[in-house]
Amino acid sequence: MGTIPHWLRGNFLRNGPGVLSVGQDEFNHLFDSSAVIHRFSIEKGKVTYQCKFLKSETYRKNVEAQRIVVDEFGTKATPDPCKTIFQKFSAIFSDEMSDNCMISLYPFRDQIFAMGETPVMYEVDPNNIDTVGRVNMREYVNIIHNSSHPHVEEDGTVYLLGLSVDVTGPKYSIVKFPNTRQGTTKPDVFSEAQIVAKVRTRWPLHPGYMHSFGLTPNYYILIEQPLSVSVPAKLASKINNKPMSSMLKWYPDHPTIIYVISRRNDKIVLKYEAEPFFYLHVINQYEEEGHIIIDVCAYKDPKMIHCMLIESLKGAHENPKYANLFRSRPARFVLPLRSEKTTCDLVTLGGTEAKAFFTTRGLIRVLPEILCEMGCETPRINYPRFLGKKYRYFYSISADVDLENPGTLIKVDTYTKTYKTWSEPNTFPCEPIFVPSPGGKAEDDGVILTSVLWGSDERKVALVIIDAKSFTEIARTEFRAPTPVPKCLHGCFISA
Question: Which chain regions cross the lipid bilayer (predicted)?
């Protein structure tokens, strides 16, 4: 229905959780399910759809054993009945991690990789979504954990936030993967990977959980929320047979710390503190008139993680407590780069209600501005042109599950603090991906791609194309799959 723009050609790829069980075993959390890659191929005004399981080692082991054999975030593996008591005891000390990369998809050079939060990635062929190969980043750099949202600059250079450990303790580490498209004999982009900046964690045994970070032309921005991955809890979980989710510890009496690191000398320029908040996704960040502006989808606390337990998801729309736990708001923090002691507001930038003050302890306390009174998640921008630059618009799905149409897409105008929405009764769109139109001059010259599911028909799926400027639908193609289609998390568009 409608007309697909003639210039729109390529593969719209999605990644996310698949089946909720293996054999007789059931997963407990949405983040545990085996990764499924989706592909909408757009060519000459026509669209085709396919999806396949990511053939990770974890997936292969589960299928072969017909049970869950590797621990996931919220699900413990089923013990092997064939193991002796001594083998079961030794398994407590195993370092085996799931390589179920079911969160995102990103380009590294001319390859596409499915990512999770362990240092393992899987290459996916964008033309048929076959699983091509496995890369363990620990073979190239010393990291034990990584965010699933790297940044890709215009020249193809990739920056990734990881956690490394050395004799002095754990550190947040920025890993650089140089663009190797030209002038190199290196076999792949990973061969030249290097850690370019490190920040010591606030608590050595409780490093903060980080899902994304900020990048501008001159700075890295790390947000250390008081949600930690507890090392003692990790050891206890092995002995007490608890899932990895038990390692996450929330410290509501401690502030969120924001670090600004220079890309020129890799040193901390300033650090700021804010009221404790939980976040997964940074929207965008930029520099303006001696300030850094960073926008995030912020929650009061991390209880929304537990909202994604399979049991909690059932009947979530009718549960008012669930809605309150899942409620986020897009928050803007303005970080003044000058540090002269004063009792006045340090933010001198116009057009914002965000504030910053020195505390009696000599630290800079930042107070955010809420960009709109709508819950926003999985935010996207005109990334090719506006990563790390002053921008006006972002696009997201609604995080307000108690709306009349909880499956709502949102376009937020950060200048006017207004928004537009797209929705259809009983439908659930995924993360909106902005694709710029050729020769477009305005920031919102382009289209939004989203895949849509139906609450009344679990086998129905559609690609919906929305004009980014007016935020109205211009085309869609609907499909009926032979099996239920799962909801996806993140993805990308690869132009043909």
Answer: none
